């Protein structure tokens, strides 16, 4: 019997683990990987204490910090399949085991939303990708298009511009979105071309990506771009399918109050899997801290 089981190994989960142990709670953390979407990020420049750090490097540091506490039990490389409420406790199930805890903190984050246009699924990993850091180097010196001009899309375009001959950003809206410093850098890059008011219709190619077809929303005309790779940044989906106990938003985010409490007493959520309005690593880490301290307070009062 654990006091708390934390599910997730990125900013929110690791922070929750650290604060749970330091609060004297008998703690277990279960994660399929450390870092989550940090592993898809080339460089972080807005996390306090790290003027510039590779996503993979920061993920390793999170893991190292958590494991420096010998009191915590860490199960790595394991996915939780369900959470069930018993009378006063929770059963946390994986494909092979079941664990019991008095409280649970869900900190499983989000994952990239899949592209749903003609040929996108067929050409996934054959030119259609969801991680520029992972797969961008495969297309060095060629032409690429980034689908989505939000925060992650503009950052990925900048990364790709150092590898590619030409990078297009295809944005459905009428302008890019992101941090001002990033938008300025995108504008200054001579090999980045921004196409706004554009609706993607199809990924072209049979065995590999040969281009894309899109509609100019202003003119209604269909156009084509010849590219060898497509990098998708069209939003994220909360990793919350494994839990049916709690109330969620239409997007699948776990609804929490100011104490990180879900609709089920004793079950907390933290970070991007919850309905917090802002999604940044530093915010997720703070939310993990809050969830752990509030779980501790919940247990002490019981």
Outline the structure in words.
By secondary structure, the chain is of the alpha/beta class. Helices cover 23% and strands 28% of the residues. The strands form 5 sheets. Strands 1, 2, 5, 6, 7, 8 and 19 form a 7-stranded mixed beta sheet that branches. The protein has a 5-stranded parallel beta sheet with strand order 10-17-11-12-13. The chain has 2 domains: 176 residues, FAD/NAD(P)-binding domain, CATH 3.50.50; 119 residues, FAD/NAD(P)-binding domain. Helix 4 links the parallel strand 11 and strand 12. It is elongated and about 65 Å long.
Give a brief outline of the structure:
By secondary structure, this protein is of the alpha/beta class. The protein has helices at 11-22, 55-67, 132-135, 151-161, 180-188, 281-301; strands at 2-7, 27-31, 43-44, 53-54, 73-76, 80-85, 90-94, 98-106, 110-112, 128-129, 143-147, 166-170, 192-195, 198-204, 211-216, 222-225, 229-232, 236-238, 267-269. It folds into two domains: 2-111 and 236-301, FAD/NAD(P)-binding domain (3-Layer(bba) Sandwich); 114-232, FAD/NAD(P)-binding domain (3-Layer(bba) Sandwich), CATH 3.50.50.
């Amino acid at each position: 019997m654990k006091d708390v089981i934390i599910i997730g190994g990125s900013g929110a989960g690791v922070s929750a683990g650290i604060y749970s142990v330091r609060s004297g709670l008998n703690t277990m953390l279960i994660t399929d990987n450390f870092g989550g979407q940090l592993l898809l990020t080339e460089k972080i420049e807005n996390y306090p204490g790290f003027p510039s750090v590779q996503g993979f490097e920061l993920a390793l540091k999170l893991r190292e910090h958590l494991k420096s506490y010998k009191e915590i039990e860490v199960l790595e490389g394991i996915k939780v399949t369900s959470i069930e409420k018993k009378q006063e406790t929770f059963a946390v199930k994986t494909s092979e085991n079941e664990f019991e805890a008095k409280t649970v903190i869900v900190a499983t984050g989000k994952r990239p939303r899949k592209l749903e246009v003609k040929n996108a699924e067929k050409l996934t990993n054959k030119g259609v990708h969801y991680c520029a850091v992972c797969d961008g180097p495969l297309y060095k010196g060629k032409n690429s298009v980034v689908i989505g001009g939000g925060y992650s899309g503009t950052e990925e375009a900048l990364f790709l511009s150092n590898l590619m001959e030409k990078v297009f950003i295809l944005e459905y809206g009428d302008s890019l979105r992101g941090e001002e410093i990033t938008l300025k850098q995108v504008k200054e890059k001579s090999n980045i071309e921004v196409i706004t008011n554009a609706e993607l219709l199809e990924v072209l190619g049979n065995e590999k990506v040969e281009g894309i077809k899109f509609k100019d929303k202003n003119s209604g005309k269909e156009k084509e771009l010849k590219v060898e790779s497509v990098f998708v940044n069209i939003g994220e989906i909360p990793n919350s399918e494994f839990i049916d106990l709690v109330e969620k938003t239409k997007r699948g985010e776990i609804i929490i109050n100011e104490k990180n409490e879900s609709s089920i007493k004793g079950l907390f959520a933290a970070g991007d899997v919850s309905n917090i309005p802002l999604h940044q690593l530093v915010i997720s880490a703070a939310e993990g801290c809050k969830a752990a301290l509030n779980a501790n307070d919940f247990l002490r009062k019981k």
